[in-house]
Amino acid sequence: MGKKMATVTAKDIRKFAGDPLAFIQALRLPGSGAQFGDAMAPFQLEWFKTIAPSLLAVAAGQKPPVGRLWTERTKGGSKDTDCAACILWLLAFSSRPVLVQVGADDSDQASEIRKVCDGILQSNPWLQSRVSVVRWRVECDATRSACDILTSDASSSHGARPDVLVLNELSHIGSRDFAETLMDNLTKMPNGLGIIATNAGFTGTWQAEWREIAATSPRWRFQSVAEPAPWLNADDLAEAQRRNPPGRYRRLYQGVWVPLGEGDAVDDSWITRAVCLPCPPEPPKSYPDPNNWIYGAGLDAGLRHDSTGIVVLRARPGSKVQLCDTWVRSPRKGETIPIAEIVTKVRELHERWHLDCLVIDPWQMIGAGQELAAAGIPVQEIPATAASQRQQAEALLRGFREGLVELYDDGRLPQDLRAASIEETGNLGGMRIAWPRTAAGHCDLGASFALLLPLALNTLNIESLVVEPPRLEQVLLL
User: How does pLDDT run across 196-207, given as a tens digit for each residue?
Assistant: First the structure.
């Protein structure tokens, strides 16, 4: 769109009301201030031309010519911006009240659409006077239309009747029930419009099953962009390729769906190299350990739907982090794992390994953590914050890429590590480890390992060897 629109006139607004594509092309983009039409890639223009008639139909209460759209793009492919632009047009210009729902895995991912909407509104003051962002809702009083942004733990996802549903980053949504509930809500609306926007994911998953439906059904308009976004330069891509394991790079930047058992957090060759211990190390014969080893345990507690996993590691300056022990307890059908049983096992491991620290996520272990601390086991609580999740992801990548970890094959932990993926969160530079649910469970040992690994690697960073083992306050450097 070659015309540079300095101001938006009443005539322009009347045109936008009947032409979603003209509205989208005229939007000023956050940051650059350029008009969207001047920055748009061909695959975006194709998608907007497809969806525009459906937006007009929904706004008029009519059946959209294309009721289901799947857009699959590589990282940085403008999924959030494109969906936000469509949502803003519908809220601002619908001739009737409409309800839009955006479903995402968690608040970090959900905040992406909200932030993009807010950025577009700030860059287009004329639109900001009509549409506003209020917490997890984008709304327009003039049309009495709203967009609710939901996460997988939102109780309000049941029973709603959305005119438009956007499932954002389907490959990252962990709860199939949540996604199915939202799609079932849309099914109740014969004139509803459904949009799925996602990166490539993993074969052998329910998301891959949904992709096959979208790719083969005449009801769906399917788009797959399996190449890097054109605005990413060669240096950025080269750096991303060096930074990421091969599987993760293929999935995010080349649009390749990778097997579920081949997670993209840790390259398989790194794990194979790490599994070099023929058997578990011998427990220390006394405390403090005469060989200067620091021993720690990571505990990821699942009580009903997931297993409880415990991993014991040891580390010392000048050596590598070594796996010492693992324990998994899976709930039987209808059972809740007794907290007392977990506490007893931790005490047994403490007696065997003389633990210098026990790292737990306090979510399921609030009272038990206090009980274990009272029993003389140093407990470090690490809640699942954005900072701790990033530290665990960075430690996992660093530990295996740099060969700082030595494992023995316990029959479970290497399998969990091979299934792990690393995904970005909504925070700037944020990332976390995603542990998929496999036939063996929810990678509970892997989660326990990752919880403890940052502290274990920090122990290796103590510069000088010491005669006595460093105390806990020296170990907990985070």
Answer: 999 998 888 899
